[in-house]
Write a structure and sequence with these properties.
The protein is mostly helical and about 60 residues long. It has one domain. The protein has 2 helices and no strands. Helix 1 packs antiparallel against helix 2. The radius of gyration is 16 Å and the shape is elongated.
Length: about 60
């Protein structure tokens, strides 16, 4: 039961990170030489890390069975 709650928590964080990425990307500057907002890249990196954590937990759970 505890593993399921961890997986649901990570899925929730991943969904929130994806929503944050979209909101941050809307505020990014176009590629016209203007300064670029680093926030979308930070949020995207966090989303990739969370996705990797979900994959690793899934693999470890299947190996233990």
């Amino acid at each position: 039961m505890k593993k399921k709650s961890v997986q649901y928590g990570l899925a929730t964080l991943l969904t929130a990170a994806a929503a944050g990425l979209r909101a941050a990307a809307e505020g990014a500057s176009p590629a016209t030489g203007e300064p670029t907002n680093p926030l979308p890249f930070i949020v995207a990196g966090a989303a990739v890390v969370l996705l990797a954590a979900v994959v690793v937990l899934t693999i470890l759970t299947k190996r233990k069975k």
